[in-house]
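Supplementary Text 2. Reproducibility record for the structural model of the 136-residue chain.

All settings were left at their defaults, and a single model was retained for analysis rather than an ensemble. We include the record here because the model underlies the residue-level annotations in Supplementary Table 4.
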Amino acid sequence: MANARDRIQDAKPYVQRALQDEELRDNLRSAFASARDVYDELLGNRGVTGVATKVASDQDIQDQLRSAVQDLRKAADRIQGHETHKSRNSTLLLAGIVLGILFNPMTGPETRRWLKDRIFGEDEFGYGDGSGGNSN
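Retained model, structure tokens:
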């Protein structure tokens, strides 16, 4: 079992990030505000079933809960140092689409020929067009 000093050292990067990261604090503030709004709407002279019914039927409360959970997830990712991979994922998706188009058995050869003509220019001599070049 780790002693207190080791546990403090393990938590130190998280505390530093929480103190210095403005976006993390904004996410936490937003999550807290959303949770406070939901709590205020649900609080009243209702029992557990009344609260459950209100949550199940009120779209605004559901949206606020969804927002609070999303803000808390963002804050958790920021404090743990997780990075988003939006650009990497978009690039991979685009590359997959391009490869699918280029190697599609139905349209691939025509697409590759069109692309080759656009990049390298049209071949005046007909080399590689499958005609063989012989008229004999």
